Amino acid sequence: MPLPQGPFVPAQPAGDGDAAPAGNGASDAAAASGDEGADSAGAEDAGRALARRLGEAVGVEFVDTGLAVTSLTHRSYAFERGLTVTNERLEFLGDAVLGVVVTDLAFREFPDRPEGELAKLRAATVNMTSLADVAAERGLGDLVLLGRGEELSGGRAKASILADAMEAVLGAVYLDRGLDVATELIVRLFRPRMEAYARGEGERDYKTVLQELSAQEVGSVPDYRVAARGPDHQKEFTATVYLAGQPWGQGTGRSKKEAEQQAAREAFARIQAGDRPVTSARRGG
Predict the structure, then answer these.
(1) Which active-site residues does the annotation give?
(2) Residues 233 and 119 in one domain
């Protein structure tokens, strides 16, 4: 079975045609292949190359190649290769580091803003959409290690995968280079977004604008239905907004509110483009 095509293909063990990220299962895979020395060396070279590309993408040189590779190892990749290490623990850590740094930045940069406005600044800066946008700008979609199923379903462009990878990379930078370097990176990547939001250039409240537009154009009130999956500390929400009883937009997010905003944004764009749900009046019923 061929390896998934992508910008990075780790060393291929001779035994089963699969690959593993260096430092996280590569040795086991190489041993199983019957040529441990050659395969291990190849995996290490591939891991160093991936770590170098990641360092160039975010502007930080990694000392620990294994941390860099782990930060890009999606669970689908690990599952297909029987690995136990994914980027999820680093994502958990990176989320915490990002939250502290962004909160501190908002507090210091906007001394006259009340608590409620600071909370909105932070939320606008670290939500899934913002994280995914930053990850895409840095080219993480080309570097993340995905399983075949995710690869074929467009996983490199999925907001949830990009956002998770971005947080995992921040966690890896924190462990590898320390808080000062992680802080510098976070400020460099996310400060412009915080400042843009503070100037009123941030994300629109699409739930509000959709409600107004749908009342005018459709004569229907949006109805949101939300499903959640994953453990409590890492839930992902999927929201579908219905207009006139028909699904008209879908979105995902780390919270119900974020998922609903993404669904509303998609539905709003459809209406703006001239697409309208068929109501009972338009059916003639």
Answers:
(1) 95, 167
(2) no
